[in-house]
Structures are given as C-alpha cells and as structure tokens.
C-alpha cells in the first residue's frame, strides 16, 4: 500500500510517499513559501534531488505540484495518481476528543476545527492541507494522526493545573503535551532494541530539537510530558523560553508596556537559546562550537539548556518510581554527543548510568551509548514520525477494508 504522508504548515507542505508494506520511503520533499513570492519545491527520490521554483497561491495548488512531481516521468515514483491508496495527515492538536488516529470524515474535521483555539498557529494550516488533499485525492481514505493523542493517557494528577477548576471546564486549560508521535515511535523502538516488552519498561524519551520535550513512558503509556497547554512550557528551546514564573507576564506588561501578544511573541520567538545568547545564535551547532572554545555567553546558555533537561529527566524518574532506559532523539538529541555526555555525566550518574564515550561519539545513529554494566540503558534513537503516520494510516484503512470484506491478510 502506497501512502502519502503530509505535514502542512501555514506556508509549507512537508511530505513523504511510503510503501507501507516494506516501510520504505519512495520519495519525499518540502514545498516552501506557499502564498508568498518565490515558492520552492525540493523533491527527493533516493539520492536524486530536484528543485522547482514556481509561485504557489495556496495548499491545493501546492499539493497539485507535489502530485505532479510524484508521477512525473523524470522525477516520479508512481505511474499515475491512482497508485496512491491513502493519505496520512499530521494534525497538531486533537484536544481531549482524540486519543488515537482516526479516519478524517466531515464530522472529525469539524471537531478538529473546534480545537483551533487551542492551536491557532497549527490546526488551521493542518485543516487547509486536509481539505486540499481531499480535493485532489477524493477517492482515497484520509487519516488524521494527532501530536497530542499519545499523551491522552495521562491522569488528572499529571495534566491538571492548579487554577480554578471552572476554567478547565470552560476552556479545557490543561496539559496536553506535543511531539506525541515521536515519543510513541521512540519508546516502542527502545523496547525493540532492548528485546523487552514495552509493557515491562519505564522509559524516558527526550525529543530535543529546536522545539523540545521530554516524556515519561511507563509500560507503554505516556504518564507525563514537559510541554503543556501549549508547546511553550517545559525545556529551554531554540527560541522558546520553556518554564518561567507566570508573574513575569504581567510584570513585563506593567514595566515595558507590552501587550499580551507582545509578551507571547517574546516568550515564543525571542527567548530560549536565542535570548540567552543575546539574540546571536539559535542553531545548537553554532552554540556548541563556541561553547567548546570557552565563549562565556554560549557556555552559560548551554549549561542552562542541559541543566533544565536533566531536571526533567530526574523528575520523570521519580514520577515513574524508577527508569529502565533514557532515549535521546530529534535534531539535537540525535546529533549532539556533547549534550548527551554533559547531561549524563554531570547529573545522572546517581542513577547508576555509565556512558560509553566511544559509542556516544556518533551522530544520527541508532545505538545504545551506555556500558553493559550501566543500571539504566541510554540510547540514541532517530525518530521517524512519518513512519508512525503511515503505519496508523495503513492499519485504519486495512481495518475498514476488512470490515467491508475487501481486504485479506
């Protein structure tokens, strides 16, 4: 079964075409600057890369260009559009309604739209992509896979904030968590690597990229995660502050005359590592390079970054009353031996962790980086959210076909 996986932003479409049976990527790419002059599609087929520059007005036009690239004689991997049998959509926010992936019918789309107030920057773009894809591929099933779904297994103890309960009832203000598709993939992959059932393991997954979050996965279920009502809470990130005293918001409004929107912009786009380095650096590679050369600004920023990460790992070990494995994933987690070594050796030796420095000296590899004697296993696991979306899409589509007696194993 060939499945098109799409992830729509407000002005972009990231996509992969996968063979769900072999779990191989046939083609992938990124369309940027939708609705802005200078739109560009970067399309990859194996090691070959193709670029198309053409102004794209909207997501429907953008997806049409992607479909053309997928079936073009020079760049394509399918002879015609009919070879695409299903579409899997990344949807950021499913609210409390969606604890698993679902077939996207009109009713579900309306319910996703009802969650727009919870993710005003993401859900509307996701819905645009769904509507556009259904217009171009109307005869195939479309499946929504939600970033928040994996964390719906949290209990009230973990997800409620200590504010008036009436505000939760009225506005659903609570911890939702994000990066759920990544945390789910990595936790299951850890269990496979260790050769143990996930229902017997306590795993901490650290998705560390420009956006970053940690999850406590106990016996296969998310029991806590660092991102909250929005992706702003938790770790220090590229441009996001992570945890701050809420009283800072009215303080800045009073002292600086900021509006609520300006404070929100400050905390989301002007803070984090960007703010700590005096608005000089966001890319962790630049920060680590300068920190290694004893640049005081970057050393301080990196120390704060790793300290906050270690605090969350320690907290989640306590929340689960123990931990069997810790996994680093995403752009920084997969590619920074420096971060991994500092976090483990500065803060986590009390857990009985021993790091193998030689094994840790890798980037983008799937590997156990702790020694055989280590009481807690530490791993690097490259994430694969697109594969999770394809798997969920395939499972839901096949289940529906079986019920119609149109599919046999």
UniProtKB/TrEMBL annotation:
<dbReference type="GO" id="GO:0005737">
    <property type="term" value="C:cytoplasm"/>
</dbReference>
<dbReference type="InterPro" id="IPR023865">
    <property type="entry name" value="Aliphatic_acid_kinase_CS"/>
</dbReference>
<keyword id="KW-0479">Metal-binding</keyword>
<feature type="binding site">
    <location>
        <position position="14"/>
    </location>
    <ligand>
        <name>ATP</name>
    </ligand>
</feature>
<feature type="binding site">
    <location>
        <begin position="207"/>
        <end position="211"/>
    </location>
    <ligand>
        <name>ATP</name>
    </ligand>
</feature>
<feature type="binding site">
    <location>
        <position position="90"/>
    </location>
    <ligand>
        <name>substrate</name>
    </ligand>
</feature>
<dbReference type="GO" id="GO:0000287">
    <property type="term" value="F:magnesium ion binding"/>
</dbReference>
<dbReference type="InterPro" id="IPR000890">
    <property type="entry name" value="Aliphatic_acid_kin_short-chain"/>
</dbReference>
<comment type="pathway">
    <text>Metabolic intermediate biosynthesis; acetyl-CoA biosynthesis; acetyl-CoA from acetate: step 1/2.</text>
</comment>
<feature type="active site" description="Proton donor/acceptor">
    <location>
        <position position="147"/>
    </location>
</feature>
<dbReference type="GO" id="GO:0006083">
    <property type="term" value="P:acetate metabolic process"/>
</dbReference>
<feature type="binding site">
    <location>
        <position position="385"/>
    </location>
    <ligand>
        <name>Mg(2+)</name>
    </ligand>
</feature>
<keyword id="KW-0460">Magnesium</keyword>
<dbReference type="InterPro" id="IPR004372">
    <property type="entry name" value="Ac/propionate_kinase"/>
</dbReference>
<keyword id="KW-0963">Cytoplasm</keyword>
<feature type="site" description="Transition state stabilizer">
    <location>
        <position position="240"/>
    </location>
</feature>
<keyword id="KW-0067">ATP-binding</keyword>
<keyword id="KW-0547">Nucleotide-binding</keyword>
<dbReference type="InterPro" id="IPR043129">
    <property type="entry name" value="ATPase_NBD"/>
</dbReference>
<feature type="binding site">
    <location>
        <begin position="331"/>
        <end position="335"/>
    </location>
    <ligand>
        <name>ATP</name>
    </ligand>
</feature>
<feature type="binding site">
    <location>
        <begin position="283"/>
        <end position="285"/>
    </location>
    <ligand>
        <name>ATP</name>
    </ligand>
</feature>
<comment type="subunit">
    <text>Homodimer.</text>
</comment>
<feature type="site" description="Transition state stabilizer">
    <location>
        <position position="179"/>
    </location>
</feature>
<comment type="similarity">
    <text>Belongs to the acetokinase family.</text>
</comment>
<comment type="function">
    <text>Catalyzes the formation of acetyl phosphate from acetate and ATP. Can also catalyze the reverse reaction.</text>
</comment>
<keyword id="KW-0808">Transferase</keyword>
<dbReference type="GO" id="GO:0005524">
    <property type="term" value="F:ATP binding"/>
</dbReference>
<keyword id="KW-0418">Kinase</keyword>
<dbReference type="Pfam" id="PF00871">
    <property type="entry name" value="Acetate_kinase"/>
</dbReference>
<protein>
    <recommendedName>
        <fullName>Acetate kinase</fullName>
        <ecNumber>2.7.2.1</ecNumber>
    </recommendedName>
</protein>
<dbReference type="GO" id="GO:0008776">
    <property type="term" value="F:acetate kinase activity"/>
</dbReference>
<dbReference type="GO" id="GO:0006085">
    <property type="term" value="P:acetyl-CoA biosynthetic process"/>
</dbReference>
<feature type="binding site">
    <location>
        <position position="7"/>
    </location>
    <ligand>
        <name>Mg(2+)</name>
    </ligand>
</feature>
């Amino acid at each position: 079964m060939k499945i098109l996986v799409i992830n729509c932003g407000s002005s972009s479409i990231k996509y992969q075409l996968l063979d769900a049976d072999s779990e191989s990527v046939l083609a992938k790419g990124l369309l940027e600057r939708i609705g802005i002059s200078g739109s560009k599609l970067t399309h990859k087929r194996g090691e070959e890369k193709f670029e198309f520059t053409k102004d794209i007005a909207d997501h429907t036009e953008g997806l049409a260009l992607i479909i053309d690239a997928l079936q073009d004689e020079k760049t394509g991997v399918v002879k015609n559009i009919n070879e695409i049998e299903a579409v899997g959509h990344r949807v950021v926010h499913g609210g409390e309604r969606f604890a698993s992936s679902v077939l996207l019918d009109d009713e579900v789309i309306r319910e996703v739209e009802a969650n727009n107030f919870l993710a005003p920057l993401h859900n509307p773009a996701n819905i645009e992509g769904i509507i556009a894809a259904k217009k171009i591929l109307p005869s195939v099933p479309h499946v929504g896979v939600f970033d928040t779904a994996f964390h719906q297994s949290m209990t009230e103890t973990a997800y409620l904030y200590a504010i008036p309960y009436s505000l939760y009832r009225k506005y659903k203000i609570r911890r939702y968590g994000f990066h759920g598709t990544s945390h789910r993939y990595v936790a299951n992959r850890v269990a496979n690597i260790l050769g143990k059932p996930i229902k017997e393991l306590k795993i901490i997954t650290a998705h560390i990229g420009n956006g970053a979050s940690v999850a406590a996965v106990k016996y296969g279920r998310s029991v806590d995660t660092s991102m909250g009502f929005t992706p702003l809470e938790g770790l220090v990130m590229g441009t996001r502050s992570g945890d701050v005293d809420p009283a800072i918001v009215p303080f800045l409004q009073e002292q600086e005359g900021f509006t609520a929107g300006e404070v929100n912009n400050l905390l989301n786009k002007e803070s984090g590592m960007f703010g700590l380095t005096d608005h000089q650096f966001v890319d962790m590679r630049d920060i680590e390079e300068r920190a290694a050369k004893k640049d005081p600004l970057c050393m301080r920023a990196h120390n704060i970054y790793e300290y906050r990460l270690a605090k969350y790992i320690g907290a989640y070990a306590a929340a689960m009353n123990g931990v069997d494995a810790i996994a680093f994933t995403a752009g920084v987690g997969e590619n920074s031996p420096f971060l991994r070594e500092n976090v483990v050796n500065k803060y986590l030796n009390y857990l009985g962790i021993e790091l193998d420095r030689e094994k840790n000296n890798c980037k983008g590899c799937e590997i156990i980086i702790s020694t055989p004697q280590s009481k807690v296993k530490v791993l690097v696991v490259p994430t694969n959210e697109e594969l999770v979306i394809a798997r969920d899409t395939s499972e839901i589509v096949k289940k529906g076909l079986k019920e119609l007696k149109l599919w046999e194993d």
